[in-house]
């Protein structure tokens, strides 16, 4: 039962990552602007992080969906969610009105204030799913179970 | 079978098992290393691809003196600055407050020619404010329009609260404060009569490669970074 739950957690979390990352892959500039809008990183880091995040999201999502290195991918996934929750909470606390840039977009958004609680709730739920996989990485229909099957008893 | 050889059989079996476990662990480590390697290569390749596709450095903007801007400073000044800005953009307002005094002084001293190009990338207020700016420019001339432009950004905080920004009455009264005849500009502001100009200006900026505001060019080269970085670069160039 737990291994099936793990499969669901993998597919949902990984699917969200792939979707979120893929929407940003086509627009490097916007991804950089979305990072810059948080006003948290020094300018020298804004561009590298803006380029890196969408790629990392897609790769982590891919690893989770196919179930390869599940525990490692889940650890990265959980770390990313912690970072995003901190980012959104800090934007909210500083009164910034920005689109979280979670699924593309980013930058100024006059309706941002109303969206922050939902974004944090969504990320927290996905963080829990990731932590579930860190604790119980053995899941159904995973590439791990094929790659790392013991060759002999 | 002697006791001794039974014992050596057990030892051999144990050794074989240990050997098998060692090979198992080796295979496992190689596999993990291989998969990690593939994923790292994918991340690095993706990163480089994202960097190569960042087109923000390519802006082929027309030089100062275009039909979509307001110019201060003399023609033939040694430096040229072009500022694409949106009246509903927080970093534009920030950039304005950081650079206005420097740029105005340098323009008056003849050291720089600055063209402000208002465009509408963000909200309906971006359009209405840029329209109001154009109406004042047409009715009252560049000096009053520059003051109006400054006032619009000084009132950014009030405009930032909602998508609607400042209401028409406030746009008109600020025009009056800038020195325009309120009755002459009211209709144009309320009816958004220069929306076509705003659309064309925005389209021209997009065609030139502008992807966001503020976008600043110094002698034709895009200046990158946060509004603070841009302000520092400009201060260094014209100071």
UniProtKB/TrEMBL annotation, chain A:
This is Methylamine utilisation protein MauE. Residues 3-133 form the Methylamine utilisation protein MauE domain. InterPro entries: Methylamine_util_MauE. GO terms for cellular component: membrane. Pfam families: MauE. The keyword Transmembrane applies. It comes from the Bacteria. It is a multi-pass membrane protein. It is found in: Membrane. One of its GO terms (biological process) is methylamine metabolic process. Keywords: Membrane, Transmembrane, Transmembrane helix.
UniProtKB/TrEMBL annotation, chain B:
One of its GO terms (molecular function) is isomerase activity. The chain crosses the membrane at residues 30-50. Coiled coil: none annotated. Residues 9-20 have a biased composition (Basic and acidic residues). Residues 69-227 form the Thioredoxin-like fold domain. The keyword Iron-sulfur does not apply. Keywords: Disulfide bond, Isomerase, Membrane, Oxidoreductase, Redox-active center, Signal, Transmembrane, Transmembrane helix. Residues 1-20, 208-239 are annotated as: Disordered. Pfam families: Thioredoxin_4 (PF13462). PANTHER family: DISULFIDE BOND FORMATION PROTEIN D, GLUTATHIONE S-TRANSFERASE KAPPA. Belongs to the thioredoxin family. DsbA subfamily. This is Protein-disulfide isomerase. The lineage of its organism: Bacteria, Bacillati, Actinomycetota, Actinomycetes, Propionibacteriales.
């Amino acid at each position: 039962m737990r291994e099936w739950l793990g499969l669901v957690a993998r597919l949902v979390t990984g699917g969200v990552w792939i979707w979120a990352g893929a929407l940003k892959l086509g627009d490097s500039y916007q991804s950089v602007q979305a990072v810059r809008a948080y006003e948290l990183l020094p300018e020298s880091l804004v561009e590298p992080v803006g380029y890196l995040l969408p790629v990392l999201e897609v790769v982590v999502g891919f690893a989770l969906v196919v179930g390869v290195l599940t525990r490692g991918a889940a650890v990265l996934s959980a770390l990313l969610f912690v970072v995003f929750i901190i980012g959104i909470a800090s934007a909210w606390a500083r009164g910034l009105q920005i689109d979280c840039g979670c699924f593309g977009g980013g930058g100024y958004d006059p309706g941002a204030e109303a969206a922050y609680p939902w974004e944090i709730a969504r990320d927290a739920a996905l963080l829990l799913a990731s932590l579930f996989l860190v604790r119980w990485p053995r899941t159904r229909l995973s590439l791990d179970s094929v790659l790392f099957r013991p060759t002999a008893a | 079978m002697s006791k001794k050889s039974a014992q050596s059989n057990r030892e051999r079996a144990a050794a074989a098992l240990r050997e098998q476990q060692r090979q198992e662990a080796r295979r496992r480590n190689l596999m993990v290393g291989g998969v990690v390697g593939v994923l790292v290569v994918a991340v690095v390749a993706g990163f480089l691809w994202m960097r190569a596709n960042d087109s923000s450095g390519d802006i082929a903007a027309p030089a100062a003196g275009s039909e979509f801007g307001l110019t201060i400073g003399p023609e033939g000044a040694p430096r040229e600055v072009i500022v694409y800005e949106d009246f509903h953009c927080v970093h534009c307002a920030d950039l304005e407050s950081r650079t206005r005094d420097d740029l105005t002084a340098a323009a008056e001293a003849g050291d720089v020619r600055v063209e402000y190009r208002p465009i509408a990338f963000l909200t309906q207020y971006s359009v209405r404010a840029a329209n109001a700016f154009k109406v004042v420019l047409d009715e009252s001339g560049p000096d009053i329009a520059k003051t109006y432009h400054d006032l619009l950004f000084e009132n950014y905080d009030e405009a930032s609260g909602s998508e609607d920004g400042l209401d028409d009455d406030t746009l008109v009264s600020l025009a009056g404060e800038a020195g325009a005849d309120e009755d002459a500009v009211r209709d144009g502001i309320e009816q958004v009569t220069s929306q076509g100009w705003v659309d064309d200006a925005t389209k021209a900026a997009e065609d030139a490669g502008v992807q966001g505001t503020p976008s600043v060019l110094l002698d034709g080269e895009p200046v990158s970074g946060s509004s603070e970085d841009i302000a520092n670069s400009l201060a260094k160039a014209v100071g």
